[in-house]
Specification:
Elements (H helix, E strand, L loop, with lengths): L2 H7 L14 E3 L4 H12 L5 E3 L6 H11 L12 E5 L7 E5 L1 H15 L3 E6 L6 H13 L3 E3 L2 H5 L16 E7 L1 H7 L3 H7 L4 E4 L6 H9 L4 E7 L4 E5 L2 H5 L7 E2 L3 E5 L4 E6 L15 E10 L5 E6 L4 E3 L2 E3 L1 H10 L7 E7 L3 E9 L7 H8 L10 E5 L12 H10 L1
Helix pairs in contact: 1-2, 4-5
C-alpha cells in the first residue's frame, strides 16, 4: 500500500498533500490529535518519526541527531520511523511503510478470520502495538475506540458489541500487557467485559503461569502473542480456543510470516511485514534474527524461553531472569517482581529480586517453596523493595535503570 493510499485510509481528506521532504515528528498524547497528525504526515513526502511524549533529554537528543542525517528511501520505502528500544539502551527507529503495515494487517485478519477488525485501544499510539490496533481497524473498515488505561482500571468500561454485533465478520480485540490483565482480573465487572471480546491479546512480556491460569479459570478469550516493533507488532499468536483448551506459549506464526530458529536457538522471523532497517540505514532483507531464545514444536507453534542478552552470569553460571520471576510470581507473594543482576565482589554478579515498595512484606517461607524447584544458584541473593519503577508507557521495564537502583539500595 502506497503512503497516500494509507493516509486516506487513516482519515486524510485533504485535496493536496504537503510534499515537502523535511522530517515530521509526531509527539501527541491525545489519540485524536495523534491520528490526525499521523494521517496528514503520511500524505506527505518526508520521513515521519513517532515520538514518545514521556521521553527525556537523552532520547530527544537521539531523535534530533538521527532526524538530521541523510537517508535513502528506495521506491518510497521505509518512511515511517517507529521507536524501538529505549528500555536500557539507545533508542532506535525501525523503518516501516504502508507495505509493511498492510502486510501485517492482512496476515492478522487471516489468522483470526476477521473481515472487519474493531478494537478498544488502551496502549499508546506511538508504540507499535497501539499503532497497529488503530491501523487494523482503519484498513478493514472497523471501529477504533481509544480509551485511557487509568479510566479503564478505575472501572469505566467502554461499551462494545461483542457477541451482539450485527456483522458476522466483525471481530473485537483488546491488547494488554500482563500487569494490566492482572489488575483487571480483580474486578468481576471487568472480567465480564473482557469475556465479550473475540480475543484479548497479552504481550509485551511473558504472562506468568499463575496469571495465565487465572485468566483461563475466568474463561477469558486470551491470546498469548509474540511480536516486536521490527515485525510491525504481532508475529505469532495463540488462538483463544487453544488457550482455553490448555495450550500455552505464543502459538503459530501469522500467515504472512515464517518463524524458525538459528543455529544457536535464536528466533528468526521472515516475511513482508519486517522493518527496513534502523534509520538512517536501509535494509532490503526479509529475514531478521532476534535476541530471543525459543523453541518451535512439531505443529510450528512458538515458545519463548527468554532473552539471550538478559542472562545473569553469577559465579560462572547462567541465570535466566524470566525463569526466576515466573517462580516468584507463582508464590502469590508479589504483585510484580523483576530479577536483575547487580555487581558482586564474590560472585561477579548477583541475582537480586526487586518488588514494588508499599506492598505487604512477602512471606519468605512461601517464596522458598516456589523457588525449591530451581537450582540454588538461580535463587535471588537479595530482595529489594523499590518505589517508582522505571517503566515506559507500554509497561516495559528499564532493567538497566532498575539494576542501578537495586545496587544502590
Amino acid at each position: 500500500m502506497e503512503r497516500l493510499e494509507l493516509a486516506k485510509s487513516l482519515g486524510f481528506s485533504g485535496k493536496g498533500a504537503d510534499r515537502a521532504c523535511a522530517p515530521a515528528s509526531i509527539c501527541e498524547r491525545d489519540p485524536g490529535a495523534f491520528m490526525a497528525a499521523f494521517a496528514r504526515a503520511a500524505a506527505g513526502a518526508g520521513p515521519v518519526f513517532l515520538v514518545d511524549p514521556s521521553w527525556g533529554p537523552a532520547e530527544r537528543a537521539v531523535l534530533t541527531e538521527l532526524a538530521g542525517r541523510p537517508a535513502d528511501f528506495p521506491e518510497g520505502r521505509g518512511w515511517l520511523m517507529v521507536p524501538s528500544g529505549g528500555t536500557g539502551g539507545r533508542v532506535k527507529f525501525a523503518r516501516h511503510d504502508g507495505h509493511t503495515l498492510s502486510a501485517a494487517v492482512q496476515g492478522f485478519c487471516r489468522h483470526f478470520q476477521a473481515g472487519r477488525t474493531s478494537c478498544v485501544g488502551v496502549l499508546p499510539l506511538h508504540h507499535v502495538s497501539g499503532l497497529m490496533a488503530w491501523v487494523r481497524s482503519a484498513l478493514t473498515g472497523g471501529t477504533y475506540v481509544p480509551w485511557d488505561w487509568k479510566t479503564l482500571e478505575a472501572g469505566d468500561l467502554p461499551p462494545h458489541p461483542g457477541p451482539d454485533r450485527t456483522d458476522s465478520r466483525e471481530r473485537w480485540f483488546l491488547s494488554l500487557v500482563p500487569t494490566q490483565l492482572q489488575r483487571l482480573l480483580t474486578s468481576t465487572s471487568a472480567a465480564d467485559w473482557l469475556r465479550r471480546f473475540d480475543a484479548v491479546f497479552v504481550g509485551g512480556g511473558p504472562a506468568w503461569p499463575g496469571l495465565a491460569e487465572a485468566a483461563a479459570r475466568a474463561r477469558l478469550p486470551v491470546s498469548l502473542s509474540y511480536g516486536m516493533t521490527e515485525t510491525a507488532a504481532m508475529a505469532a499468536a495463540l488462538l483463544p480456543g487453544e488457550f482455553l483448551a490448555g495450550e500455552r506459549g505464543c502459538g503459530r506464526p501469522l500467515p504472512h510470516l515464517s518463524v524458525d530458529l538459528s543455529g544457536d536457538g535464536l528466533v528468526r522471523i521472515s516475511g513482508e511485514s519486517l522493518f527496513r532497517g534502523y534509520y538512517p540505514d536501509f535494509s532490503a532483507e526479509r529475514s531478521y534474527t532476534t535476541l530471543d531464545l525459543g523453541e518451535v514444536d512439531a505443529r510450528g507453534a512458538l515458545r519463548i524461553l527468554g532473552r539471550s542478552d538478559a542472562v545473569i552470569i553469577t559465579g560462572g553460571k547462567k541465570v535466566d531472569p524470566q525463569e526466576v520471576e515466573a517462580a516468584l510470581l507463582s508464590s502469590g507473594q508479589f504483585s510484580d517482581v523483576a530479577v536483575v543482576g547487580v555487581p558482586d565482589l564474590e560472585w561477579g554478579s548477583a541475582a537480586v529480586a526487586c518488588y514494588p515498595a508499599g506492598q505487604p512484606t512477602p512471606d519468605m517461607g512461601r517464596v522458598g517453596e516456589s523457588l525449591a524447584r530451581l537450582a540454588s544458584f538461580k535463587r535471588p541473593r537479595r530482595y529489594v523493595a523499590l518505589g517508582d519503577w522505571p517503566r515506559n508507557a507500554q509497561g516495559k521495564l528499564n532493567r538497566v535503570e532498575l539494576a542501578r537502583r537495586a545496587a544502590s539500595a
